[in-house]
Amino acid sequence: MEVWRALIGPLGFAAKSLRRRGFHSYLAFLGLTLTVATTTLLLLLGQDLATRLGIDSSMRSTFGISWLIFAYLVLALALVSIVGLLSSSYLVSSMINQRMRDIGVIKAAGALPRRLLSYVTFEAFVVIFSSCFVGALSALLIYASWSWPSVSLFKQFGPVPNAGASVLIEVPLTSFLLCYVVASVRVRRIVGSSSVNAISKQLSNLDLKSLGNPLRIKRFGSAFNLATRNVSRDRGFNRTLLSVGICIFLSMVVLSGALVSADTSTSYVVRAMPPHVMIVANINIYNQYVTLGTSFSGTTPIPSLDYVNESYMISPQNASAFRAISGVETVDTRLITMSSITGFVKAHFASNQDTGENINTQIIPEIDTGSAQALIVGIDPSNVIGDWYTSDGFLHSNDAPYMMIAGDSLVGNIVQMPLNLSQVSAFGFRYDVKSALVDPLNAGRVLYAPVQTVQQNLAVSGYNVLLLNVNNNPAVFSAVTQLAKSYGLVVGSQDPILNSNLEFLNSTWSHIFLIPILALTLTCGILLSYLATNFSRRFNDYVVLKVLGANVWYRLKLLLWESWGVLAISMLIAIPTAWAISIFFLVPDPRVSVADLELSTLVSALALSSVSVASATIYSRRLGLTTVKDLKL
Amino acid sequence: MMDPQDEETEVRAPTLAVDFVGVSKEYLMNGKPVKALASITLNVKEGEVAAIVGPSGAGKTTVLNIIAGLEKPSHGEARVLGLDLTVSNEHSLSAFRSANIGFIFQSYNLVSTLTAEENVELMMELAGWSDSGRNEKLTAELIRMVGLTDRAKHLPAQLSGGEQQRVAIARAMANDPALILADEPTGNLDQKTGLEIVKILLRLKGEKGKTLVVTTHDDRIVEMADVIYRLENGSLESVDRPTRVRS
Q1: What is the pLDDT of residue A464?
Q2: Which residue of B has its CA nearest to A548?
Q3: ω before A418 within 30° of 0 (cis)?
Q4: Are residues A268 and A284 in the same domain?
Q5: Domain residues of chain B, as ranges?
Q6: For A119-144, how does the pLDDT look when each residue is reduced to its tens digit (9 = 90+)?
Q7: What is the pLDDT of residue A380?
């Protein structure tokens, strides 16, 4: 005798019931296991990736770009968690709904409600617990067998031992608790309702309000009309639409969010370092400027240099000579130097409202926020090449002379928010901080100030770097090179610096794109579970149609309209909303490539549609094998 | 000169609705062949009512499946309304079924999401009748014929067993089929409700002149049959009325 037959009590009930409903039990277990496994794996990978990127970007990149990447990762992982938990609870709810008739029959046969409740809840517990356990184990095995050395980022740091250890416990445990609560509430509700309602499963699943008003569009044919009636009369239609819609919406936010964030971070770098700009400087300063420019993407230490050495200086007359060359559009005259700076928060009044109408005002004394080495760039605000992303605008010619713009890597430590209370001490003088900007130069540890002020502070009269914006005429390039040579200066393009930085950004984002791709896979899995459950529920109706003479094409069209219809409605609402959220609320001053968004939408729509077409085709083939004998009595 | 086989087809097709010669059906169960039908011969003339009786598991539903073209015979010749089922593909069989056959099941098997009238109208759509105005009119007529005008907009789950079976009969008539197959149509109904169904089937025979093949345990249906077959252990034999009454 098989062991399960000898079991009694809740365990015996669960074992026999799950065995009797083999296919449906397997489907519920598989759907839930897949969801838990994918969610856990995604969060494990995400956390590992975040840790590695954290180590990587602490050595290079800038605070603003790192923040953008981390904000995206945190958001993506939070949304993936929501998708995973939502779909798990939806699957459990569907699983319990399938048991509605059985529960009604057992109750009608005289089972005590309390015992019935404990038996059915225990059965759900068995499925949920085993799914969460197997799901977590599968995720761990896949994660452990992940080929880290094949990816440069992973090769660089090797395995990160503790990344994701907590995820491995938290995700399955949260999924288990949520699913168990959903199952308990649902079972309690069914057990508490009338046996007659529970037994009349068909009726309880149908929405009687929509009767008599079927949607009929002659052009789409009978299969479409039947599909709309089937779907619209399903009482769970709105819930399904909402669940599938939310999952698609969240995975689209993750996907389009990655694209928008990637495009925007690239745009921040390009705006700070525009292409086709020529650098004119003494060879030593030029080399130093290249090292400073590529410190965003490299880990080479910045060598020390006497930036204001007389031999490096370009006089204002020489700078004007470059400006006089026909075809030179802008000459950005810069005086750069590395200096120790100290940050301060100015003394100010702080008001806080006590209970009632009492307002307490207190004086906060000046605070020293620490010292650091930073690159100070003196620039002429009226002739600047660059269109940085700034928090409160760039310097203007009419700004006070002791005003600075802080690079993003100084914000949060040397420069504190709010910026209007921040001051920076450099060369023994106090500068007010007007704004913050994202700049790859010296990996964001940079301060921009009016060049005249910097010249006065350093007691020099010229510049040490010229950035030239020229037209595309090769003769202009030749003229600039000639003139520079005559002054003992070298000429180079800013493009290699920009390209190196963009390459680093692209490489970083290409690793992160694993997250949205897996999130989309998770949504496809959820859709597959929904379709399998839905088709199984209406299996009898499809067999009847086949017996009555519905041909293969009619059956396939019906299944396609039913599956793709729900998907199409969900996508129609979810995708534009996800676009809007990603474009307008995710990152400041976003730059979006329409082609990227179109591509991401196309990829998502194709992936999800493929799932619906594949499941409809497989089910249609399965229907081809049925006969009258497959109809339920 | 006409081939003798062609000549035979020419003669049989117009008069025999169902013409099975030496039809057998085998299934594989756990890798072993199981014989469901053993070389049966079944002839049902047009306008005739044939009742097939026999114990459960004898193969009655298999016979109906083969007549409807849902299953192919393992051996033998099977023609229904002149169509050779053994050589037809699934697409042509579906078209044949939707145009020529009406099906009545023991457990009604109405499409659960459609109302009574929509279930009837669906059959017309499957048969390729695209004139919705005409379909609606015919549906109303059929619904009236089975006495369910006031229940036309109800879902199957809102109807009693007898009412559902009446809808199923109206649906079986919807495509004006030449042949109606009924699989134990009163099997799930009480005596009184079953009698109502029998009366409707009698009307189909008397007024509409439809050919009916019915598998049943119900004496009242056997009573109205023109020919009676007994199926046991996969073998089919024609029985006379006194034998039937005794059984």
Answers
A1: 92
A2: B98
A3: yes
A4: no
A5: 46-75+87-246
A6: 888 888 888 999 999 999 998 888 87
A7: 93
pLDDT value of position B8: 43
pLDDT digits (tens, 9 = 90+) for B48-78: 999 999 888 888 888 998 998 888 899 999 9
B72 chain-A contacts, CB cut-off 8 A? none
CA distances from A494 to A274, A291, A373, A480, A485 (A): 8, 12, 24, 15, 18
pTM: 0.75
Tokens representing residue A139 in the block: 């995720």
Q: What is the DSSP string of B66-135?
A: HHTTSS--SEEEEEETTEETTT--HHHHHHHHHHHEEEE-TT----TTS-HHHHHHHHHHHTT---HHHH
| B20 at A interface, C-beta within 8 A | no
Choose the final residue of a domain: A171, A204, A237.
A204
A233 & A176 share domain: no
Examine the domain organization and report whether A476 and A608 are in the same domain.
Answer: no
Which of B65, B109, B158 is the closest to A544 by Cβ? B109
pLDDT at B245: 45
User: Which residue(s) pair with B21 in the sheet?
Assistant: B77
Q: Which residues of A touch B110 (CB under 8 A)?
A: 544
Q: Write phi, then psi, for A401 (nearest 5 degrees).
A: -65, -35
Answer with the residue of higher pLDDT: A108 or A394.
Answer: A394
A211, A192: one domain:
no
Give the CATH H-level superfamily of domain B46-75+87-246.
P-loop containing nucleotide triphosphate hydrolases (3.40.50.300)
Residue among A214, A551, A629 minimizing CB distance to B94: A551
Q: Among A34-48, A153-167, A329-343, A541-555, which stretch is predicted with the lowest mean pLDDT? A: A153-167
pLDDT tens per residue across span B100-112: 999 888 888 888 8
Q: Looking at A303-312, A600-609, B195-204, which range is the least confident one?
A: B195-204
Q: Note whether A182 and A214 are same-domain residues.
A: no
d(CA B228, CA B193): 23
* Residue range of the domain that includes A57: 1-204
ipTM, two decimals? 0.78
Cα A500 from chain centre:
24
Number of folded domains that form chain A: 3
Other C-beta atoms within 10 Å of A311: how many? 10
- Which of B65, B126, B158 is nearest residue A548 as measured by Cβ atoms? B126
Contact residues on chain B for A547, CB-CB shorter than 8 A: 68, 70, 97, 103, 109
Considering only CB atoms, A551 lies closest to which of B91, B105, B115, namely B91
**Tens-digit pLDDT profile for residues A373-402:** 999 999 999 999 989 999 888 989 888 899
Residue B103 forms contact with A (CB below 8 Å): yes
Interface contact flag, A230 B113, Cβ < 8 Å: yes
Q: pLDDT higher for A463 or A193?
A: A463
Contacts (Cβ under 8 Å, ≥6 apart) of B7 = none
| Domain end position, chosen among A186, A204, A222 | A204
d(CA A629, CA A536): 16
Same-domain check for residues A158 and A18: yes
